[in-house]
Specification:
The protein contains five helices and no strands. With about 120 residues, the protein is mainly α. It has two domains: about 40 residues, no CATH class; about 80 residues, Up-down Bundle (AhpD-like), CATH 1.20.1290.10. The radius of gyration is 20 Å and the shape is extended.
Length: about 120
Amino acid sequence: MMLDWKEYKGQIAAAVREMAALNPDVVRAYAGLHHANAKAKHLDPKTRELIALAAAITLKCDGCIDAHAEGALRAGASKEEIVEVIGVTVSVNAGAAMVFSARAIDAYDTYATKTETKT
């Protein structure tokens, strides 16, 4: 196991309780957003959790991965479905990196053009 997820969940909960004591409005607003999404009617809970898990992986958020892996399991997702979600997530992130890489070429070309015009 890479991480003791149950211990980590406790650490996150403690930190959120501390934040709630110092700034309850922010934590309450986040909880409201979470509850509003849970009431959505067009996607079933399993689909919402699988989408959330994909986003969590992309954002590299261990707390989100913890919450949504458990949420997906509770909503009936199988390990095979989780692996498919991971495959889609990896593919989309690779595609985004490929497309966004054009910016690196553009930046290089910008500076290369300036260097060529100086000589």
